[in-house]
Design brief:
By secondary structure, the protein is of the alpha+beta class. It contains 5 helices and 3 strands; from the N terminus they run H-H-E-H-H-E-E-H. It is 55% helix and 17% strand. Strands 1-3-2 form a 3-stranded antiparallel beta sheet. The two termini are 18 Å apart. It comes from Amycolatopsis jiangsuensis.
Length: 103
Amino acid sequence: MTGPALPELDPVIHAQARLRVTVALAGLHRADQITFPRLQQLLDMTAGNLSTHLRKLEDAGYVEITKAYEHRTPVTLVRLTEPGRTAFEQYTEALHRLLDAGA
C-alpha cells in the first residue's frame, strides 16, 4: 500500500542562498523593491554570490532587476515578481505538506 506522492520542491528556490533571497524579497510589499547593497547586507552575502543567485532567480522569472540612477549614481533595484511570489507560496505549501507527511 502506498501513500500519496510526496510533493516536489522547486529546485530554483530550494538552494539555500536562493531560498534566503526569496524569503527576504517575499517580506516586502508586492510593488516594493530593495537596493542590491541593502539586500546584500541583510543576507550577509558577497556581491558575486548574490549576483549569481539573483541571475538564476531572474532567469526563472522570479525576480526583476532594474538598473536606475539616483542623483547620478547607478542603483540596482531588486523585487520579487508575481510569478516569483506564486512560486514561493507553492514552495512553502509543498514544504508544509512534505513535513506533515513525515509526522
